[in-house]
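G., the chain you wanted modeled:
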Amino acid sequence: MPSRRVLKAAEAVREVVSWAILTELNDPRVRDVTVTYVEMSGDLRQAKVHVSVMGDLAHQELSLRGLKNAAGFLQSKLSDRIDTRYTPRLEFVLDQGVKRSIEVSRILKEVLPQNRDEDLAARQMDENVDEREDLETNEEHAEDAATGASSGDEPDGDATN
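Predicted structure as tokens:
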């Protein structure tokens, strides 16, 4: 587990690099890029920047190549904004986590609607059965109350004749 200092530095690098990509990087190859997280070495000299790129594989590779070419520019922006002894050397890695989660979500949507419809139908049947039982119980109580009142029984079970 990285130390707290390393985690704070990684978060700072993520913020600065993502802001620089969004606002200051004018490379047309780098579009639809999200910095997901940053891994820092213990001595804070290396930073592995995980990025997610929306689009097909060719667009992802093109954006990754653009980021690797802009690494020096992004390191200079990093050194301007973060005061450390050494400016971390940036390495960009394509993060497939978002793509995988989207794919899993798509697969679940294909599988679950059938089960969801069956579950919904089963729940509705259970609710209807429960409602019928409640109605029958209420009718029985109403009949007991009606017959008890006409026979003259007191609530304690004694007859009033």
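Helices lie at 4-23, 57-69, 71-81, 97-151.

Shout if anything looks off.
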